[in-house]
Amino acid sequence: MIVKRAGRNVVLAAVPAAVFLTLGLSGPALAEGAKAYQIDLAQLNESGSRGTVMLSLKGNQLTVQIESEGMVPGSPSAQHLHGSTKGHDFKCPDATDDTNRDGVLSNTEATHDYGDINISLTTAGDTKATSGLAVDRMPVADKKGKISYKRTITVGQDVVDHIKDLHVVQHGIDRNKNGKYDFEGAGKSELDPKLPQEATAPTNCGEVKGAAVGSIPVGAIETGGGSLENATVQVTMRDGVAITVLAVAAGAVALTRKRASAVPVRQDNTGGGA
Fold this sequence. Notes:
Elements: E1 2-6, E2 9-13, E3 18-19, E4 35-43, E5 50-58, E6 61-69, E7 79-83, H1 107-114, E8 117-120, E9 147-154, H2 157-161, E10 166-171, H3 183-186, H4 197-200, E11 202-207, E12 221-224, E13 232-238, E14 241-247, E15 253-257
């Protein structure tokens, strides 16, 4: 799959097969009946961060595996599944969402595009939206700025039904390049004045491949040259590696998304962790 983003335009082209191998992350051995989805994390705030996410869903057990780099070394990174389980069309933001033009895309500015927290990807304890800033339970980047994360979470049926409408966001930037979060880089966080803006601003974002359109989009979705309504993802095993094939009926599809007009409503899940 090739994804090109220019402002609000997204162009997707189907390829015969794609192997989940990026940044050393290989597809896990899937249990019978499990479904797997890949997410590629792309930088926000010119952070230089990137990564790969594998979501494996069997029943109501969701396994999230993340390998990312370009994070702030030795610092915790808040990370979440954002979006909606009500079918609303939320997507990753870009620099144009920096509405106050201060050079930093804050979480509040970005939330208009990627929606509120649905699941907090903590390392222990609950995974509710209310744990979104539980930095003491978030993964910490190593001295090279890399994060490796894996956790299996019990989720509700709403998440099972709308997993393709959710996406991963990691937070934490180093605007003044001093190797840590501080108030001198971008001031106080609008979410919690006790935290630096650097600690809560998004550093990357990624959407489920092949899920360019939410189930019931908020606002209009204009399509040209085809539709993704009949797109399917098939996962098979080959030599212990998950192989995904995206089949798009119309071949290449061009999508132009209008900004969502509804104010996102916070989602909450009741799942714990395993």
